[in-house]
Amino acid sequence: MKTCVAAFANQKGGVAKTTSVANVGACLARLGRKVLVVDLDPQGNLTESFGVNPDLQDKTIYDSLIEGVALKNVLVGVGERLDLVPANTHLAGAESELFNLPEKNTRLKKLLGRVSGYDYILIDCPPVPRPVNRKCPDVGAQDFYPCPNRILCPQGSAETAADNRVCQGARQQRANKKDIRDFVRWKDKHLSRCP
Description:
Blueprint: E1 4-9, H1 17-30, E2 35-39, H2 45-49, H3 61-67, E3 76-79, E4 82-85, H4 94-98, H5 107-113, E5 120-124, H6 131-134, E6 143-146, H7 154-164, H8 168-175, H9 180-190
Parallel strand pairs: 1-5, 1-6, 2-4, 2-5
Antiparallel strand pairs: 3-4
């Protein structure tokens, strides 16, 4: 079974990116899928969502991106069939550090490519127009989900979609999904390249 990689992003904060990743990840795990959730936000809110203190982690996504630490050495098991790659405030300086590193634009993609055994990898992107958000489709994400349009986030969603050339129809269909079963049915119907 091929791993489905999905990045959740929007340039607006508070639009349920982290909540979506946490809930979709937990629900997919409860449905029997093996899931890896990746926190790419220096605030570490996804990490905290799973009861993990970001400041007490010896290794985070920062260490993988900058130092080349394998993701398997960073993973934290947070549930049955559910693992987390944590983040903390160290990640805030990663973009400037990545600037001078070789293969800066493909490091995350290569890290994710070395991880096996997962049905889904869900990425929680930071809520700002950063290069890491614009590169999310390049990390191997087969599908890219700007979070649902709500009253406060249409502009951020539109800018994110434009930056990443996301299909307007797919974004709108995703916005209409209310629970995990609808999400899974929608994914199965519309995303033939994902398992």
